[in-house]
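User: tokens in, sequence out, please.
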């Protein structure tokens, strides 16, 4: 019975760490040369900006939903016309969900390390290609 309590406490602490990490990333939205701002639209026409990692593969632009909070990703699926701001330039794009071999290829080029996977709670990774509109 003692081992069950220890495991429950350890699991609770781990979930707390994941929630805190995800919350801090969402709140601070850190930016660098490998990030960009994607502007999505919800069903009411409201726009929302989100800092996301920029994935360049074979001359194509991709973005991945690497975290549990992924509202921007569901908005992109429902309304694929997005704007991307990167390096001071803003452009219109159409988001196309990526699966199969193309997804495997992008993941191989931009794999996530074990530490980031651990800190984010091992969410499933979803990828979209951003084609110029």
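Assistant: Sequence out:
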């Amino acid at each position: 019975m003692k081992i069950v309590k220890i495991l429950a406490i350890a699991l609770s602490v781990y979930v707390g760490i994941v929630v805190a990490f995800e919350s801090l990333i969402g709140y601070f939205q850190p930016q660098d040369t490998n990030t960009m701002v994607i502007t999505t639209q919800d069903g009411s026409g409201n726009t929302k900006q989100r800092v996301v990692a920029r994935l360049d593969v074979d001359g194509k632009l991709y973005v991945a939903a690497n975290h549990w909070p992924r509202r921007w990703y569901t908005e992109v699926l429902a309304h694929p016309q997005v704007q991307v701001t990167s390096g001071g330039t803003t452009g219109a794009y159409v988001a196309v969900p990526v699966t199969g071999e193309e997804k495997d290829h992008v993941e191989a080029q931009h794999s996530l390390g074990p530490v980031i996977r651990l800190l984010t709670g091992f969410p499933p990774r979803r990828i979209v290609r951003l084609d110029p509109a």
